[in-house]
């Protein structure tokens, strides 16, 4: 065999090995990414539950305050109407 053929064969073997190692690394990276995305999805679901459980009482409290405000304004308007009639 000629020296050129030996260099080409060795180069092909080294390049093939590098491509195989890079492919295996890429597959492991994709698996890790999949696990990370699943964990992130679980965290986001928990966050959604927490925000819903916090938002409902605040919304209810806001509705109660608006009801009180409307009630006070109604009674103050009645008082003004009574005073103006007298």
Q: Main traits of this protein?
A:
rod-shaped, 86 residues, single chain
Element-by-element helix/strand order: H
Number of helices: 1
Radius of gyration: 36 Å
Instruction: Give the overall average pLDDT.
Output: 85
Termini gap: 123 Å
Uncertain spans, ≥5 residues at pLDDT below 50? none
Number of strands: 0
Overall helicity:
over 70%
How many strands, what sense, and barrel or not for the largest sheet?
none
Characterize the overall form. Answer: rod-shaped
β-sheet strand percentage: under 5%
Structural class: mainly alpha
Task: Provide a descriptive summary of the structure in words.
This protein is mainly alpha-helical and 86 residues long. 97% of the residues lie in helices and 0% in strands. 0% of the residues are buried.
Concise structural overview:
The chain is mostly helical. It has 1 helix and no strands. The protein starts with a helix and ends with a helix.
Task: Give the helices and strands, then pairings.
Elements: H1 3-85
């Amino acid at each position: 065999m000629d020296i050129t053929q030996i260099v080409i064969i060795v180069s092909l073997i080294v390049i093939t090995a590098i491509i195989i190692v890079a492919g295996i690394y890429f597959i492991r990276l994709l698996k890790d990414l999949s696990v990370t995305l699943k964990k992130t999805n679980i965290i986001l679901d928990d966050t959604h539950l927490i925000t819903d459980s916090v938002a409902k009482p605040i919304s209810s409290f806001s509705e109660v305050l608006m009801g009180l405000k409307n009630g006070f304004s109604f009674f103050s308007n009645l008082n003004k109407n009574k005073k103006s009639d007298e």
